[in-house]
Amino acid sequence: MQEKIIIIDGNSLINRAFYGLPPLTTKDGIYTNAVYGFVNMLYKIYEDYRPQYISVAFDRKAPTFRHVEYEAYKAGRKRMPEELGQQLPILKELLDVMNIHRMEIDGFEADDLIGTLVRYCEEKNLESLVVTGDRDALQLASDKTRILITKKGMTDLEIYTPDSIIERYEVTPSQFIDLKGLMGDPSDNIPGVPGVGEKTAIKLLKQFGSIEKMIQNTKEIQNQKLREKIESNIEQAIFSKRLATIKTDVPIELSLEALKRESPNQEKLMEVFRRLEFHSFIQKMKTNEETTELDTDMTKIQTIENLEDVSDMAEAIERAAHCYIKIFGTGENVRNRKIVGISILIDDGHSYYLEFEKIGQSLDVLKAIFENENILKSGHNIKNEILLLQKYGISLTGVDFDTSIAVYLLEPTRTSYEIHEIYNTYLGKNMNSEETLIGKGKNRITFLDIDRDMLVKYGHQVCTAVKELKKILAVELENLELKKLFQEVEIPLIKVLADMEYEGFRVDHQMLSSLGKELNGKIEQLVSEIYDMAGEQFNINSTKQLGDILFEKLKLPAIKKTKTGYSTNIEVLEKLSKKHPIIAKIIEYRQYVKLKSTYIDGLIDVINEKTKKIHSSFNQTVTATGRISSTEPNLQNIPIRLELGREIRKVFIPTDDNYLLLDADYSQIELRVLAHISQDPGLMEAFEKEQDVHTMTASKVFDVPFDQVTSQQRSSAKAVNFGIVYGISDFGLAENLGITKKEAQKYIDEYFDKYRGVKSYMNQAVEEGKKNGYVTTILNRRRYIPELLSSNYNIRSFGERTAMNTPIQGSAADIIKVAMLRVYDELKRRNLRSKLILQVHDELIVEIHQEEIEEVKQIVKKEMEEAIQLTVPLKVDIHLGKSWYDTK
DNA sequence: TCTGTCACG
DNA sequence: ACGTACGTGACAGAC
């Protein structure tokens, strides 16, 4: 069999990985994205190519012979950013642990080492694959050596053979050097022949074959000017060619023995992966092993199928006074979901699986356990359990711990809180994902269709994971002083959110349909008008096609570009609106289509047939700041700003005639929070005296008396206040107000001069973030901001704005969460029929019973305003109406 | 699956 | 010299 070797340009590949991936860091803020990308790529190539030998070459910092010969070589190259630099030693350590050969020598670049190794391997009759992001390596291609070039994003690969090089570039591998000698290379500062570009160089090489032959026959060059250029740059061309030539005779000792692929040091590799928090690789290693630690012993799990067994289990749970639960349901809408099975684990090791279909007659026994507040329950994403039980009239009580929420408080910026992910992270295990059981996307099946033994095992694994995680997470929460927030806010809030989901928001299906028909008529009309004006039919929804029509066909000026083409967003369109009547039509079309697709069709799709309501999901572990998010549908972005869209709110109505809707919103909660945190006297005064805060800001920033502020000035000041909350920048404010950066800076300076306390808060927030690595909110919610330490201006600036904004947005989130708990509890305590049904960041929507109007209005106002005592008052405005639209 | 756009606070 | 406002989710089209 033909033996193979992979030769990797380490510097080039880690570079590609670094710029191709988002700035991943460990919890401690160590950058790991480039190493991660590198290892990913390594595994992929390894698996595809299965080589017997491997080596990775690196550049050294020391000057190479090229620098010695030519001082300007690679001059002007940017230094490697610190975030990447610190990853190099990590990568090298990792390669050593993996027992992968690596080479680096003072005075030579990785390319030269690769060139030398390639020729050596050709002699030894090995087939080589050179892996690099640098096209210079194409000169090394031969019938035994292929070159794999990684393009952007790392997943895009191109493999070159001599033939494909000729096909693509019209030169042979060895002519590649001549090509560069002629064209030069600005990135390496190689001069080449001035005025000769790729086209000319290729033509010349086709004619002569090489630079040397061309020099001997310059008189054959037809083009007079070109000939002169070349004749006066002969030395430079030869010199450039030499710089571009990869050396193949570096004095380095090579032996096949050293290059041989060996198996990695498993233990150490695992340790490094753990340190770097590369959980997917850990999982990969483990699944490659023959047995897994989690292979559950079925004999330890008792399957329960009759009343007697349920009672025995109930007794055991009662004695333990604590259990871990995982309930499997069918994957439908909240109100249609059914329970398939229930896994329960007790600390003494007893593990049960209840076959739900067979214990239907034992629900009372279960209910007694689940509703007993003295029996504590722990789980993962336990809102799911609450909702499933709710359907059977069981109200899960005594919720003690939710591992997903615990991890959310510890790491609010994680992308996944799936149980297997966090179990594997925190305990270095190799649990499989739920996805491996039921698949994803169109292949997804329900737990009903799964082999029962698999469910039994998986349920036991989840409960075990929760049990083990709880021990660790509880300590961590305690250490970071997050226990109070966890126990007193987030855990009780689960039930509130579950109830909101279960209750749902009634909508008028008919009204939605007729609104849809109306919109359809308008859309059809607009489409034909747009086609007429464009002179052809095209897909108006396609930004690409629209861009072609507007900027190519109609020759309108392109104002902004995106990375894929012309920008056609609303700002651009508004600027073009006077240039062509089609623009206004497109703006109108967009508005209607948005309403139709997202808010008419989208909402109709999710109306529950039985309840005639929309049951959105409220997620507690999504946002980085502590806010709640709403999905399927998102009820937190129903239109309001424009009248046309606002009409949608007319379809949101109370359950029946006995109810009205109450909408209670905090007035200026974020600015009040800012006043509280910063203790700025001016800002505090505005709220203490209940003055209009934007007018006040205008009066200060524009230096006019309060009662002489124009509406124009007030509106500018409002933008300034928004900017302050977002972590202001002159550019952002300028963009928003359509003024120059300089003017914007003037506003900002003026603002900070008048609100010194706010200014010092901003500085303090950034300082604190840099010092601690995180910032906090009023309730000590925490967000890590590794971006603050970045050497990249943009990333660092983003970190600074985050440090300023998160305590404000996050504290506001804390306040409304507490308010939700208080309102919910008070309505319960008084046995009222009114119910909290929605939260939209600074507003609560309550379905209010006709007989409870005054009482509930008072409760909501009081509990919201007194949720958390700040040094400025909180103010809540309340509106009632027969639809959400009417609560204004 | 990613990108652009646009709806909300 | 750099190129941004903070936090979300849904939809359609391009790839």
Short overview:
With 888 residues, the chain is α/β, with parallel strands linked by helices. It contains 37 helices and 25 strands. Helices cover 50% and strands 12% of the residues.
Which tags fit this structure?
single chain, 888 residues, Nucleotidyltransferase, domain 5, Taq DNA Polymerase, Chain T, domain 4, six-stranded mixed beta sheet, 50% helix, globular
Give an overview in words:
- Its EC number is 2.7.7.7.
- It is an enzyme of class 2 (transferase).
- Residues 301-478 form the 3'-5' exonuclease domain.
- The chain has 888 residues and is of the alpha/beta class.
- It folds into five domains: 4-259, 5'-nuclease (Rossmann fold, 3-Layer(aba) Sandwich), CATH 3.40.50.1010; 298-480, Nucleotidyltransferase, domain 5; 508-611, Taq DNA Polymerase, Chain T, domain 4, CATH 1.20.1060.10; 628-680 and 757-888, Alpha-Beta Plaits (2-Layer Sandwich); 691-754.
- 50% of the residues lie in helices and 12% in strands.
- The strands form seven sheets. It has a six-stranded mixed β-sheet, sandwiched between helices. Strands 7-10-9-8-11-12 form a six-stranded mixed β-sheet, sandwiched between helices.
- α29 crosses α36.
- The longest helix is centred in the last third of the chain and has 37 residues, at 793-829.
- It starts with a strand and ends in a 7-residue tail after the last strand.
- The mean pLDDT is 92.
- The structure holds a DNA duplex (9 and 15 nucleotides).
